[in-house]
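Protein: Carbohydrate ABC transporter ATP-binding protein (CUT1 family)
Species: Amycolatopsis thermoflava
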Amino acid sequence: MAVVEVRELVKEFDGGRVHAIDGVSLAAAAGEYLVLLGPSGCGKTTLLRTIAGLEQPTSGDVLIGGHVVTGLPPRARQIAMVFQSYALYPHKTVLANIVFPLRAAGMDRAERERKARWAAGLLGIEQLLDRKPRQLSGGERQRVALARAMVRDPQVFLLDEPLSNLDAKLRASARDELKRFQQDLGTTTIYVTHDQAEAMGLGDRIAVLNAGRVCQAGPPVDVYDDPADTFVATFIGSPPMNLIPHDGRLVGFRPEHLLPAEVVNGERVTVPLEVDRMEYLSGDRHVYGTVSRIGERTRVVARLPATVDTPIIPGETHSFAVPARRLRFFDSATGQRAAPVRLDG
Ligand code: ATP
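Structure follows.
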C-alpha cells in the first residue's frame, strides 16, 4: 500500500506566474526509500513541503496512510521532517532538543528520556546528550536532528538535503548510516537531493524531476540504464550519457560503454575517436575526443576501467566501439525515448 501519495498535484506561486509543481502523481510504498532528484529550482522542496502540509496545493491531493490529508495542518499528518538547516535550539542540550517534540506532545519525563536514549543509541550519539549544539560537529548536529525526528515514531520521514552541510567524507558515511537505520526502522522515507550519487546510493526508487514534473520514477538501475528522456540521460551519470544526433534521433551511450574496439566483442558499432585529452579519476581513464561517424561531429567521453590497458595517445585517432545492446535512442525534437534504428557495425 502507498503510505504517501500525491495525485495530480499542482502548486503555483505569484498568482500563477510560477509553476513550481506542474501535475505530479507519485507514491511511496510502505518502508520505501523514495528519492526526489533534480536540479535547483525543479520543485523538490515545494513537493516535500506540500506533502508535509507546509504549503497548500493549488490543485490535486496529498494522501498519507491512504487518507486524503490535503488541507490538514502538518501536526495532523504523522510525519517527521529534517531540513538542511537542522534548526536545533542553541541553548538546549542535545537531550532537551531530542525530547522537545515529546514534551510538546505531553509525554511523561521517564518515557521521553527512554525514547531519546533509544534514538541516540541507534545513531551513536549517547555520549553527546549533555552537550549544546555549538559543541557538535556538523555531522553530529545532523544526527541530533534525525534523532529528534525519530522519537516521534512517524509514519513518514521527509528529509530535505539533510547532508548538504557536511564535507564529502562525512557525507558518505552519514549516507551509509541513514540508509542503515532507515532499513532497521523500516520507516517510509522521502528524501530530497540534487546530488545524483546520493540518490543512486540511497534510493529504492528515484523520481527525477525537471521543471515541476516527474521525468521518470524507478529503481536507480533503471533510471541509469534506461533513461526515459535526454534530461534524465544527461542529469544522471558522471560524466553524463553521450548523445550523438543521427537522422532525427539522438543516439545515446554511457561513457563506460565506449571502449577501445579491440576489447568489445559481439554485435557492436565502431567509431573513430579523435582523442584530445585524458583524465585519471579513481583508477579510470576518462578519454575526451570527437567522433565523426554515426552522425555529426560530436564531442564524447569514454571511461576506461583500469583493466583496459590499451595505450591511448591524445592527438591521435583510435578505433573505439559500443556494444549494440548498450545504445539508446531518443527523439531529437522531444528528447523522449524512441524506437531503435540500425547502425552499421
Ligand atoms: P533547490 O534545489 O534550489 O532547493 P528545488 O528543486 O527545491 O530547488 P523549489 O524550492 O521547490 O525548488 O522551487 C521551485 C520553484 O518555485 C522555483 O522556481 C522557485 O523559485 C519557486 N518558488 C518556491 N517557493 C516560492 C515562493 N514561496 N514564492 C514564489 N516562488 C517560489
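Remarks: The chain has two domains: 2-225, 240-331.
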